[in-house]
Request: fold
Amino acid sequence: MNLWDKGFEPDKLIEDFTVGQDRELDLRLAKYDVLGSMAHIRMLTKVGLLQPDELEPLLQGLQEILDTIEAGKFTIDPGVEDVHSQVEFMLTAKLGPLGKKIHSGRSRNDQVLVDLKLFMRDQIREVAHATEALFDILLDLSEKHKDKLMPGYTHLQVAMPSSFGLWFGAYAESLADDMQMLVAAYNIANQNPLGSAAGYGSPFPLDREETTRLLDFADLHYNVVAAQMSRGKTERAAAMAFASIASTLGRMAHDVCMWMCQNFGFVSFPDELTTGSSIMPHKKNPDVFEIMRGKCNRIQAVPNEIALLTANMPLGYNRDLQLLKDIVFPVSGELIDCLKMAAFMLPQMKVKDHILDDKLYDYIFTVEDVHRLVREGMPFRDAYKEIGLQVQKGTYRPTRQVHHTHAGSINNLCTDRIAAKMQRLRPLFD
Ligand code: ARG
Reply:
């Protein structure tokens, strides 16, 4: 049963191949599809294409479908192509021919677009909330552990003193950068494509400002062709923002895995948060952070998948675009799971004290000692050479004094300034 029925049945093989995963994936669009239709028919009434006495039963019928969706009881029947067809068939079953009137002045192409815009807007907002929650935890932990020193590495060789205050704060500030990408993605999603119809507008005098207002979009995609082009672009912008968060989180997960390794032994977790081995009885493994790292790496592949799917695609609607749903729909959920898991695990992380007392890290203080000599009046190059020669001869003994006061350093984390960066971005997602 197709909306585009014109007297012949499509081959079953063709139907299965072209519908693909849509009957399941479109369930996530169902709510937005109905909300889009409600706005569309209100607008049609405003411009005189529907009568007020037709609007009321249509709105009532759509509300009933929305209730079914919200109760988790909505399904797309076998033989029905997609959510747009299902909603229209259900409405027509309730109201007779009146139900068929909702499609005036639109196409499934702008219908799926508006659904996706509303869906992506919500997904981005949910990711933003999970990101903010982890950000707050990281900043708290940065303050809590600010006096706990650890080695800083360059080239994975011990370099200079760092601290858990710096480490936690670094990931928080990095998430504030990722949030800028989420803001950009949100602004791209938050534009109304409705009225672009199949991609070239409609002969009806549609009031596109009205649907923009009703659906609470910040603006329109004015140019109808640009509106169609935004399919793929919207998903790509969101995927890039998600990938940016995933790169921050994946890197942090890797640090934790490395530091849990006995060769480092900087951090540990309560036993019940670790996993075991079927053969080695002593194991307490960091599987949580390995899964997190793997998921985050996979998420970083998504913008490339979208780029390849949409490469060299002709202007206007093409059915390939449907496959974007397969790629993009699972991503926000996976990312939110990772963000929530990090927010659950990190406050329970035990951080070792006095890590730098180990002789292994003696050379980490060379720069401190060069600077001590400079403060005592020695020119920097002479001081550098003096300490360098001591290291070379094996006579260097660290004073183990760490004295960093400038903005963003061990003793001056600027936590409030970092918090303010995120604070400025939060209101968009409230
Ligand atoms: N399932 C389709 C999609 O996601 C809906 C739009 C169908 N439009 C069409 N011209 N066949 O793209």
User: Anything to note?
Assistant: The beta strands are 149-154, 157-163, 191-192, 219-220, 267-268, 350-351. The pocket of arginine is lined by residues 22, 82, 108-109, 112, 317, 319, 321-322 (CB under 6 Å). DSSP finds 14 helices and six strands in the chain.
